[in-house]
Design brief:
The complex is a heterodimer of chains A (95) and B (419). By secondary structure, chain A is mostly helical. Chain A has four helices and no strands. The longest helix of chain A is centred in the middle third of the chain and has 12 residues. In chain B, a hairpin with a 2-residue loop joins strand 22 and strand 23. The longest helix of chain B has 23 residues. Classes of the chains: A mainly alpha (95), B alpha/beta (419). The complex binds flavin-adenine dinucleotide.
């Protein structure tokens, strides 16, 4: 009767994280546990630019963007921490 | 110069003398990881990417195992047991040296490891992620043989298909007893997710029935959300008996399939799933990494053992409260430790210690709730920086959305950890 399908889609986009930039950012490495790009319902992170990502994270933090798991994970982050996180996730060095 | 750099330089100088004769370059450091589950595998993978010059050896005896996550779906037929099988073998593709063997001894001072197959390995850094073992000493009559008659299916072993088969064979009107342990233990919401999906399977088959949850504690994670879900989805089917009501199981009779509760009551169900109390796996204790409570105390910033230098303990075996013992936590800790080791080898400052967790629980295949948090280090302590769970007032559409997220999370964490 199996009614849940938990096989990964045959083709998936791999998250290419820039490890040299994220080397100080253990937090950034946890994002692909959900946002790795292989899922149907959870967006991957590739293709985001730093500013769009930081805006989105701030909106979750400030309650302007509704969500399920995200708001509780970013509520305690400062603007500077969000900027560093976004930079690490997007694979670009923070200013 | 930090200690690991100094040790490595000394070793490299010694090793450099017969250089023209050497076929292999000297690795920057030798890291031996014990246990290839969620913690060990994610640490191995992250270390290969963060510090390719480091030699990564992963020792794990099991070529295949059932994952903890989705075990409850597999035993209740919501997915097949074959869908939740994982292996450390994929790590070899990225240059991890997987040794299929069991560690039988660790010299925590010399950082030397001995295996059942007779290998002797010297490490510059050890990462220990062996998971949990069951405690037989807290319930009278409980041992491995009695446990097999009341499968916990908590260790990804043969008890998973065994409990699945026992579930499939239940008749209409069956009573199931679940015994939940005291804190801390692997996967805090697990026993209650199990009760939910067992109720789902009974109802999906058109069976009447009853599920009794006997608890060694008086509260559990996401309790209001679980009980609201039970009332909505399975009214009257699941009964939770807390410790204060005498619900703690104090003795078992494996032969008769009987549980004795703290309140003196004897219960004989059609099927019992007794989840024993737990502690860090045996090898952690043998290596003198555990404290009196049976778990491994660690420094929050890099999960270094507080008992022996140069050894990191991650995953369920670590005393990492307030993080729950989950696959997500183990994965996150594995990555932090990989970055810490890479930083040390390369002489960079240590990583900023931030850790994440999110745990989904399925109450039905289209109904899930979640809890999650961000963790950091304040005054040398691991603390919760923010956390939360699904709102009690969420709509059915949101519960269904979270069930889809749960499914996608499962696919993704396996890919992220095992490849
Ligand atoms: C029913 C259930 C549901 C769960 N659901 C979820 C969930 O939805 N989300 C979630 O995040 N987590 C969930 N978990 C929890 C998750 O399974 C664990 O937290 C996770 O596996 C911990 O990782 P670990 O590396 O500490 O241990 P494991 O993944 O158990 O890995 C330990 C490995 O070490 C090996 N080992 C032990 N001793 C030795 C030795 N001497 N030598 C070599 N190797 C050794 C073992 O063979 C094992 O493979 C669930 C667990 C259960 C039981």
């Amino acid at each position: 009767m199996p009614i849940l399908s938990i096989r990964a889609p045959a083709c998936c986009v791999l998250l290419l994280c820039c490890w040299s930039v994220s080397a100080q950012q253990s937090l950034a490495l946890s994002c692909p546990v959900c946002h790795g790009g292989s899922a149907a319902s959870v967006p991957g992170l590739q293709g985001y630019d730093v500013d769009a990502l930081a805006d989105r994270l701030r909106a979750y933090r400030d309650g302007e963007q509704p969500g399920t798991a995200m708001p509780r994970l970013v509520r305690a982050l400062s603007d500077a921490q969000i900027a560093r996180l976004a930079a690490a996730v997007a694979g670009v060095d923070s200013p | 110069m930090n200690r690991l750099r100094r040790e490595l330089l000394t070793a490299a100088l010694g090793a450099a003398l017969p250089w023209p004769l050497r076929a292999q370059p000297v690795p920057a450091a030798r890291v031996v990881i014990i246990g290839g589950g969620f913690g060990g595998a994610s640490c191995a993978r992250a270390l290969r990417r963060a510090a390719p010059q480091v030699q990564v050896r992963l020792i794990e005896p099991r070529a295949h195992f059932y994952t903890g996550p989705w075990t409850n779906a597999a035993i209740t037929g919501a997915c097949a047991t074959g869908d939740i099988v994982q292996s450390p073998a994929g790590l070899c593709d990225i240059g991890v040296d997987w040794v299929q063997d069991r560690v039988t001894g660790i010299d925590p001072v010399a950082r030397r490891v001995r295996t059942a197959g007779g290998m002797r390995l010297q490490a510059d850094r050890l990462v220990v992620s062996p998971g949990v073992e069951m405690r037989w000493d807290l319930i009278e009559g409980l041992d491995a043989a009695a446990s097999a008659t009341m499968p916990h299916a908590w260790l990804g072993d043969a008890q998973v298909p065994s409990l699945s088969a026992r579930m499939a064979a239940l008749r209409d009107g069956a009573t199931i007893a679940i015994s939940a342990p005291a804190n801390p233990y692997r996967c805090p919401p697990g026993p209650y997710e199990r009760a939910s999906l067992m109720a789902w399977q009974q109802s999906a088959r058109g069976h009447r029935g009853k599920i009794l949850v006997f608890d060694a504690k008086d509260d559990f994670t996401k309790r209001a959300l679980f009980q609201l879900g039970w009332d909505t989805l399975y009214p009257g089917r699941i009964e939770w008996v807390p410790r204060a009501a005498g619900g703690e199981v104090v003795a078992v009779d494996g032969g008769r399939g009987e549980l004795r509760l703290h309140n003196g009551e004897r219960v004989r169900a059609d099927l019992a799933s007794l989840i024993p109390a737990q502690r860090a796996a045996a090898i952690a204790r043998a290596a003198d990494l555990t404290d009196a409570g049976g778990w491994c105390p660690v420094r929050a910033a890099d999960f270094c053992s507080l008992r022996h230098a140069g050894i990191h303990v991650i995953g369920d075996a670590a005393a990492a409260q307030p993080m729950p013992k989950s696959a997500f936590s183990a994965n996150s800790q594995g990555k932090l430790v990989a970055l810490a080791i890479a930083a040390e080898v390369e002489g960079r400052p240590p990583p900023e210690p931030h850790l994440l967790n999110t745990c989904y629980s399925l109450l039905a295949p289209d109904y899930a709730i979640s809890v999650g948090g961000l963790y950091g280090v304040v005054a040398d302590l691991l603390v919760t920086l923010s956390d939360g769970s699904s709102p009690l007032s969420a709509t059915r559409a949101t519960r269904a959305l979270e069930a889809r997220y749960a499914q996608d999370w499962y696919v993704q964490i396996n890919r992220d950890t095992f490849g």
